[in-house]
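User: quick one, sequence for these tokens?
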């Protein structure tokens, strides 16, 4: 389901780039329609009167989306004077796309599809040096149309190669749709061949860097749309499975060393590694420590904490997580850091009272989180041996189940775990015989559980 959601997100982004097919026409409208303005080509075109008439006819019909009327004169103009006017290609794309949508016969479809691809080759021949729409831009358009209209080619490698050529040449001047389709195709290639994993990650970084440059450029009209596309690209990488920690380490090890004083770069690495749960990586630790020295933040402090924990330095990890809590700007993160400290005290230091203290701290920032209650309840249940009286010691299960019930109440996502724990520990409640010999145990009455627990519960 997760992958499908990611694909839906990526496909939905087309709404922001659906002007791409018309963009070329809009850019050139300065005083007169550029689509009817001849552009010089490497070869001097022979423009007959019939050719000019046909260009005018198909151009006017295509502008009104009357593609059936436009097809005949376009075919004549394309065959007789392919270098006469750029409109032959900008309008030709629309006309051929329409024609392909109407064809049922596979052989005829293949013929017209090949014509569409050949049209881009001719455009490069006659207009590849156009300053606004140069050869790399044309290759991007060719790759997009191949990806959409080809039949019988699941991987669409030619489109992938044309799109990459376009991106490598245009960089942050690339079209957003070219970037989107390129990374989608790279993901499909990885799914078909696991050996493509490292290339897919490299492709992601290429697209990611371009999007970040677009986002940072407030003067770009695509800045907002790039910011909306980027989360979907990130999610595609995470859901793909290609971003395993080892592959990422090979890709970023030297880059982190070379950018150890670049706070922006290190921030991206730390955030990215955390998102894909690679916080045990030495590369992540190097980036986090470098970033913390340059620019202390919750992200860098938590990165240092994670690696300190990995190296067995629990006290330093706790210090860093406390620092991260102070630096964090949202309660969600503060709650996470405090709960992580609680887990360290519980799992590594066997200090239940400190673990509970930090679990309670976490709840102050996020009261509707059931996990701290589950942790406290688990520690209560494991404290049976602190009482010498076997019957009295069973009271810990009452107070433990109280916490499990509370977890279920505040956080429905914990209901399954809470119910399992309730079912497990209810079996160990004091029996009727136990309660007969302990007058202080009366069903429905309050009972105070001493020791480090120090809480009241209800006998049952």
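Assistant:
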């Amino acid at each position: 389901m997760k992958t499908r959601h990611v694909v839906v997100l990526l496909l939905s982004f087309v709404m922001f780039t659906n002007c791409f097919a018309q963009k070329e026409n809009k850019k050139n409208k300065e005083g007169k329609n550029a689509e009817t303005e001849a552009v010089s080509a490497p070869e001097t075109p022979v423009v007959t009167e019939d050719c000019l008439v046909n260009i005018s006819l198909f151009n006017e019909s295509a502008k009104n989306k009357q593609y059936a009327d436009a097809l005949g004169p376009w075919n004549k103009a394309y065959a007789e004077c392919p270098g006469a006017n750029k409109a032959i290609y900008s309008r030709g794309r629309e006309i051929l796309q329409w024609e392909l949508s109407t064809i049922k016969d596979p052989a005829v479809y293949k013929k017209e599809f090949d014509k569409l691809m050949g049209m881009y080759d001719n455009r490069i021949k006659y207009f590849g040096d156009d300053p606004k729409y140069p050869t790399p831009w044309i290759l991007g358009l060719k790759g997009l149309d191949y990806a959409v209209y080809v039949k019988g080619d699941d991987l669409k490698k030619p489109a992938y190669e044309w799109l990459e050529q376009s991106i490598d040449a245009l960089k942050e001047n690339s079209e957003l749709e070219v970037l989107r389709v390129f990374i989608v195709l790279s993901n499909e290639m990885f799914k078909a061949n696991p050996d493509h994993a490292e290339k897919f990650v490299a492709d992601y970084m290429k697209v990611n860097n371009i999007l970040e440059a677009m986002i940072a450029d407030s003067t770009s009209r695509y800045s907002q749309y790039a910011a909306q596309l980027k989360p979907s690209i990130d999610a595609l990488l995470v859901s793909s499975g290609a971003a395993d920690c080892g592959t990422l380490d090979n890709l970023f090890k030297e880059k982190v060393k070379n950018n150890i004083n670049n706070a922006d770069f290190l921030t991206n690495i730390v955030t990215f590694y955390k998102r894909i749960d690679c916080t045990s990586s030495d590369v992540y630790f190097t980036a986090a420590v470098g970033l913390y020295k340059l620019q202390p933040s919750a992200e860098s402090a938590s990165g240092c904490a994670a690696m300190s924990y990995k190296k067995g330095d629990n006290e330093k990890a706790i210090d860093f997580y406390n620092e991260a809590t102070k630096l964090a700007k949202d309660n969600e993160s503060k709650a996470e850091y405090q709960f992580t400290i609680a887990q360290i005290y519980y799992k590594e230091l066997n200090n239940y009272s400190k673990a509970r203290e930090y679990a309670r701290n976490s709840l102050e920032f996020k009261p509707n989180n059931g996990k701290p209650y589950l942790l406290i309840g688990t520690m209560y249940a494991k404290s049976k041996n602190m009482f010498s009286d076997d019957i009295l010691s069973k009271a810990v299960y009452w107070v433990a189940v109280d916490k499990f019930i509370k977890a279920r109440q505040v956080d429905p996502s914990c209901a399954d775990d809470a119910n399992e724990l309730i079912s497990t520990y209810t079996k160990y409640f004091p029996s009727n015989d136990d309660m007969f010999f302990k007058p202080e145990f009366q069903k429905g009455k309050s009972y105070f559980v001493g020791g480090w627990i120090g809480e009241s519960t209800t006998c049952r």
